[in-house]
Target: Dihydroneopterin triphosphate 2'-epimerase
Amino acid sequence: MINVCLTYDASEAIERNEISAALNYRTITKQIIAHVDGQRFALLERLTHEVLTIVMEHGAVRWAEVEIDKPHALRYAESVSVTLEASRD
Model:
């Protein structure tokens, strides 16, 4: 499971109340799916880093956190997850 949390300046979208002024989550989601689909990653850390890179390629994103959660990755554990974050100065 991939979880993405991000911040961007949404003031224009809020003021105008228009989708065109907001960050396009669908575009980001499609890019992530296209990158991950059919690929194999030896490390959750690598996958998490690559997804975070995709999110941060969008100039409007000021900060992002990506968590990759792998259910049943370890015996006796419900899941294992890796979380990475990045921000712009």
Q: What stands out?
A: The chain has a mean pLDDT of 94. The longest strand covers residues 61-71. The chain has one domain: 2-87. The CA atoms of residues 46 and 86 lie 14 Å apart.
